[in-house]
Write a structure and sequence with these properties.
The protein has 6 helices and no strands. 91% of the residues lie in helices and 0% in strands. The relative contact order is 0.12. It is elongated, with a radius of gyration of 33 Å. The chain has one domain. By secondary structure, the chain is an all-alpha fold.
């Protein structure tokens, strides 16, 4: 026995809703904003990795600065700094920055530090160029992908709308036939 018109309408409405959810999911996947966000996250991860590799090469200079900071800390006294910054992490950070700045300004750069800075700059220059090029490539890829995805979504939406329309017409015809057949 056939379905009642109300059941058919409910079925059509449910299918339209499911199709709408599917189209929304596809639209989110191919959205230029979401594509850019995913690519930006990949670039951020790459930058973080690059920074960790570069900072790893500067470890000798870091140890010298830490030794100098230890000497300054002994002269200031941990209780004095602790008392001034109690309950204020921002204040503690500012005091630490100020102490580091004073130590750096008071001490002229040593030969190893100058050499390390020059080596770091030599290593960073190609990395900077590579990052600029990578940024250009990402922008171009995003532009191309967005255009292709938009066209795919448009075609998919057109096809889906046509399918829904065809199904609705078929259901309407079937309902009409049933109504005609059941009329005495």
């Amino acid at each position: 026995m056939g379905q009642e018109p109300e059941e058919l309408r409910a079925d059509i409405d449910r299918r339209r809703e499911d199709l709408g959810d599917t189209l929304d999911a596809i639209g989110d996947r191919v959205s230029p904003g979401r594509i850019i966000e995913r690519r930006r996250n990949r670039m951020t991860d790459g930058m973080r990795s690059l920074r960790e590799r570069v900072m790893g090469t500067m470890s000798n200079s870091t140890h010298k600065v830490q030794d100098a900071a230890g000497g300054v800390r002994e002269h200031l006294g941990p209780d004095a700094v602790k008392g001034q910054t109690a309950g204020s992490p921002l204040g503690a950070g500012l005091v630490a920055f100020g102490v580091g700045f004073l130590v750096a300004a008071a001490m002229p750069p040593s030969e190893p530090e100058v050499g390390a800075a020059q080596r770091a700059q030599q290593h960073l220059e190609p990395a900077k160029d590579a990052l600029v090029e990578a940024g250009r490539n990402v922008a171009q890829d995003v532009k191309e992908d967005a255009g292709e995805r938009a066209q795919q979504v448009k075609e998919h939406a057109t096809q889906a709308a046509s399918n829904v329309s065809d199904q609705a017409k078929q259901q309407a015809a079937a309902t009409k036939d049933q109504a005609t057949a059941s009329t005495p």
